[in-house]
């Protein structure tokens, strides 16, 4: 590595001694290089994929997705079984959903967590039975709630008192009993980006368990009294009392999700402790036995060098141990547990392929006033197919995919083709010095929150998603958009 590069790169990035080697904390075994050095996905060479489906292209390994879904299913059920507890695993569809993916998740024995009427529609189209589906969201519409109840979803996760009231009202009108979980904020600050941390108080999700927040519940003093509550109770306690009083609601329990891309076990254990303690308080106070707790998802994956994602078995064992210890301390039975991993199942299962376009060296001044050079490599996609770098400062890595990345490696920044200087795909990576226009780059771990967050910014068409499976020809899972698609909703000259 040249002296100038050291000033331009973060500490975690090291010069690749063997640039053809795929870092296995980022790349699953479904991704390999063949004898010529070309990257393959489930045995299919990337050039075959790009010749057939073009670039940019999302490639999603069905084999990897199914294997990871199975790992989480088995890890959680085994870990909790050891403590005599039952568990359900919901795949968080928001991370990446298509009809086929919903079907695979169902076939692998996972339930499905949907975050909108649209995600619910995909699950319905895939034939996922209602009782296996959860509907989430902090602002569900009447139509979404109606549809969920009509289809008989296994649970609606209510995020506020107005939602509890709305669900009760709609269920009454429909002559249904709505199975409801209440999302609470355990007040644990997870160490992740602020926009994906969701259990501290000052954000939009969940209902506060903190004493004194009942006064924020928007219910009158008389109503509080009629519920036998006080102003020094918690907002969530008011929601629980209202849900228990509503004849059209079957209150199943509490839900929390502390955030996403979290590596440490501590935050999850702390949240579990707090929610279990609170549930026991509710059980005593309202003389009920709420049967279930959902502890959400959020398990981190490897995007870049140095990140150490934990295996599903370790995550599950730590959670099962801490839940069982907490329940023993509280003197309560372990309730039915559920979990909602998304990224940790879909993320490493997908990659994005891009074609290299213009390559440009840019002079920058380092902190000592010395002029240095950064190599900018432009590709044919960008923030419209991967918004995470712009949204969360997310870091990725990239490799040369169509041939072996031999020779000298140069510190590079991979950028998109959008009209934003923040349109960065990979902030820091080493790529071969001889990289040229027409080469194919692969960005790993793009299976989650990339297609799901994609847009048509600058009128780019969304790329296709191609599914691969060991011993099978690659199949188009979601076709890429065309210019006709772009123009289809535009009503023309008015
Ligand atoms: C309620 C809920 N459950 C599960 C998830 C999935 O999180 P992850 O994909 O990080 O596992 C999310 C992500 O935002 C969420 O909001």
UniProtKB/TrEMBL annotation:
Its cofactor is pyridoxal 5'-phosphate. Keywords: Amino-acid biosynthesis, Decarboxylase, Lyase, Lysine biosynthesis, Pyridoxal phosphate. Transmembrane segments: none annotated. Residues 348-447 form the Orn/DAP/Arg decarboxylase 2 C-terminal domain. The modification N6-(pyridoxal phosphate)lysine is found at residue 94. Its EC number is 4.1.1.20. Residues 76-217, 239-346 form the Orn/DAP/Arg decarboxylase 2 N-terminal domain. The keyword Disulfide bond does not apply. It is an enzyme of class 4 (lyase). One of its GO terms (molecular function) is diaminopimelate decarboxylase activity. It catalyses: meso-2,6-diaminopimelate + H(+) = L-lysine + CO2. The active site is at residue 419. One of its GO terms (biological process) is lysine biosynthetic process via diaminopimelate. Pyridoxal 5'-phosphate binds at residues 298, 340-343, 449. Pathway: Amino-acid biosynthesis; L-lysine biosynthesis via DAP pathway; L-lysine from DL-2,6-diaminopimelate: step 1/1. InterPro entries: Ala_racemase/Decarboxylase_C, DAP_deCOOHase_LysA, De-COase2_C, De-COase2_N, De-COase2_pyr-phos_BS, Orn/DAP/Arg_de-COase, PLP-binding_barrel. Substrate binds at residues 343, 388, 392, 420, 449. PANTHER family: DIAMINOPIMELATE DECARBOXYLASE, GROUP IV DECARBOXYLASE. Belongs to the Orn/Lys/Arg decarboxylase class-II family. LysA subfamily. HAMAP family: LysA. Homodimer. Specifically catalyzes the decarboxylation of meso-diaminopimelate (meso-DAP) to L-lysine. NCBIfam families: lysA (TIGR01048). This is Diaminopimelate decarboxylase. It comes from Rothia aerolata.
